[in-house]
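Reviewers of the previous submission asked for a worked example of the structure-prediction workflow described in the proposal, so we include one complete record here. The input consisted solely of the amino acid sequence. No template or homolog information was supplied to the procedure at any stage.
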Amino acid sequence: MDFQDKLENLATLAVRVGNNLQPHQRLFIRSALEAAPLVRLITRVAYQAGASLVDVVWVDDLCTLERLLHSHEDDLTEVSEMRFLAMEAAAERGDAYLSILANDPAAYQDAAPTRIAKMTRAMGIRGKKVSELFGSGQVNWSIVAYAVPSWSKRVFPDLPEATGLAKLWEAIFMASRADQTDPVGAWKNHLTDLEARRDYLNKQHLRRLEFRSFGTDLSIELPELHRWEGGSGRSSNPKHPMPIAYVPNIPTEEIFTVPHRLGVNGTVRASKPLSFNGQIIEGITMTFKDGKAIVAGAATNETVLHQLLETDEGAARLGEVALVAESSPVARSGLLFQETLFDENAACHIAQGRAYAFTLENGTTMSKEELLSHGANDSQVHVDWMIGSKDMSVYGIRADGSKLDLLNAGEWAFTPEG
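From that input alone, the workflow returned the following C-alpha cells.
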C-alpha cells in the first residue's frame, strides 16, 4: 500500500471503528488545521456511512501560543463560549465526536508555566460539563493522530525533516493498524483479545493492585464496584435506541479501571516523559499517602508538574489505573512519541484527576456525591502518565487475600481463560 491507501484506511478506522458512526447520526470533528487532508477523507467516509451532517471546528496551537505570549495576564481567564456551547450541544444532541491530534508536543515551551496554568484552569472550569457528558458514556467519541513536521522533529531530532516525517507516519500507521490490508478486521481481532482479558479481570473481583519495578513500589486499592474497561466502550446515547460500540483511542492497548481515591499508597516513578500543556515533564517521581500525592518531583519542568497537582483538590489523586503489555505495537516501535495518545499505549499508566463514571458499576447513573462515596475521584483534569517498563511486575489481590499475577517483566502473566 502507498501513503494514500494507508491514510484512507486511517479515515475508515476513525469512522467505522473509532466512532462507529450510525446512519443519520451527526459527526462533530475537532481538528488542527494541518490535518485538513485527513479531515476531508473522514468527511467523505462519514457521509458514505450515512452521516446526516459533518461539522468541523478548527484549532491552531500557534494562535494559542500568541495568546500565551502576548495577551494581558488578566485576560487569560477568558474562554471561548462558542466552542464549549457547540460541544455541549453536540453531546446532548447525540452526535459522534472525533478529535484529530496534529501538533507539536512542546508547542508552548516558550510560554510561562503560570500563564499556561491560568488559561487551562479557566478552560477546565468552563469545560466541566463537556467532560462529564463524555465521561458518562453518553457520547461515542474517538481520537486519531496526524503527523506534522513539528511533531516528527521532536521524535526524530537528528533526521532531515522529510525523513523524520515519513518515519512518524510509518509509526502512526503501524500502531493504528492502518497499514494492514484489512484494518477493520485486524481491529476486530485485537478488540476481541482485549475485551476477553477485560472480562476475565471483572470476574476476579480484585481489591488491590500492586506495582513493582525499579523506583516503583505502589499499592492501589480498588472500589468494591470497580469495573475494568478496555477495547470498545458502549455509549448509552438517549438519541439512539441501542448502545453504540466505539473505541475512544486509536491506537488503544490498555485495560483500565478506577482506583479508590483514598487508597493509593507508596512511591512511583515515571518510565516516560509527560507532554502536558505543550511542555515536556521528565523524570517524574511521586509519593502517595491515603490516595493523595504528598511528594512530587521531576527532572525538568517540576513547576509545571506542581501546577497540575494544584489545579484543584482532586488533581493530586488518581482517577485511572491502566495495564498495558510491553509487547504492544506502540512499545515494539521503540519510539517515544511525546504524545499521551501513543505513549500511554506503550506502558502501564496512572492518571491524575477525574475518574470515569463508567468504570464503576452503575456509575453513569450516580450523582457526583455518590461517585465520591464509592471511591471515584473528581477533578477538572485527567492527565495520564506512564509508569510501566520491561522490569515491572503487577499483582492483583482478591478479597480472600489470594494473589493473581497480572504482568511479569512487563508482559501479560494471565490468559483470558485463566
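The chain has a mean pLDDT of 94. We consider this example representative of the routine output the project will generate in years two and three.
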